[in-house]
């Protein structure tokens, strides 16, 4: 090693990319030799408590990032010991003088990173942390009174008015690595791949990694973004970007997405905006809002943002919860969504709202039970947005759906899946049922059911509850606590 070349560590977490990665770029610009690392220690933070579907994605995303480093002549090193122990050992063994990382915003992660930063600085080690996953830091956006936002629209207007217009950072063309033997483990030692075979089909739907993220975004901008506003609510159509898992794992940054959308708009010469693009960017805004709420109100992962909901008399019937998880509630649009989730590790956003409302307001199950199931089965499981979404649908969170809004699963199905295409895809036992009855098979005449090969209660379940009765019961409870 040359005397003039110092060494630094780049600690990857939720930034599994090289493009627009401030930590990586700054480390390179420092002139130091890089040691890129990733630590997986289940005792440390929520990031290592990821559900099975997320772990599948993480494995393949890390594999791709490792390949990117290998193409540059380096290696991504994997460790299972506590992060601080790993870094302190590398400092001792390789004369490391600086550590670079991109910030995290979950409560446990903030506590961990703050402690690590203090310990390293006390030891005389430089620490450089960056915003690598948000358009604005949560503490940078506040109301005129200096308070955090709890309503989305003014929050997003504030962010839009102050987004950094700079072009995203390019991926480095050359990286200088510290070339010595480093004692580490292998990616397979993390045992991230699910033991059950239920995730075996995920590869048919997803391509984890930075390249896969940019290919997905390019395809969406070419073929979907202009029609996004009108198509996004119809689950049988390819009307959404499906970028959420790529964003969660930091394979692409929101700044890269916003820049790509703006380039698209400039090419079309629509300087005054375009409904599809504007609506899509607002969805990026909801992601930002989720992190804003989580940062300022960290208790919301366990308790309601609105305290009066903490004493809500949830039913918490284990059998009903299981039926919901299995997609066996007897309401086709609900069951189709839950089966899509199990098969693909993802669910269409409109359907997420429908199944969430059904669990919380028809079955009166605690929203945390839904959040826990999504956490284990979604490839895009994200603490901030999972919490925001479930508290929204339960009526207990920021900018929440009003307590009196109870999604009618029949009307929602008829409106957003009028021909039943989505239902037939995920519930094949209903595939022969005419459109008229596809959303309410229990009302179909006996001869129609027989011709479709359906025996309610046997080949497909009877409704778990009567929606109208469940709605009235829920509203009566919500009215009391209101």
Automatic annotation (TrEMBL):
GO function terms (MF aspect): deoxyribodipyrimidine photo-lyase activity; DNA binding; FAD binding
Residues marked Electron transfer via tryptophanyl radical (site): 314, 367, 390
Sites where the protein binds FAD: 228, 240-244, 280, 380-382
The reaction(s) this protein catalyses: cyclobutadipyrimidine (in DNA) = 2 pyrimidine residues (in DNA)
Example GO biological process: photoreactive repair
Cofactor comment: Binds 1 FAD per subunit.
CC cofactor: FAD; (6R)-5,10-methylene-5,6,7,8-tetrahydrofolate
Residues covered by the Photolyase/cryptochrome alpha/beta domain: 6-135
Keyword Flavoprotein: yes
Assigned EC number: 4.1.99.3
UniProt xrefs under SUPFAM superfamilies: Cryptochrome/photolyase FAD-binding domain, Cryptochrome/photolyase, N-terminal domain
Keywords: Chromophore, FAD, Flavoprotein, Lyase
Pfam (any one): DNA_photolyase
Leader sequence segment: none
Family, as annotated: Belongs to the DNA photolyase family.
Name of the protein: Deoxyribodipyrimidine photo-lyase
Taxonomy of the source species: Bacteria, Pseudomonadati, Planctomycetota, Planctomycetia, Planctomycetales
Gene transcribed to yield this protein: phr
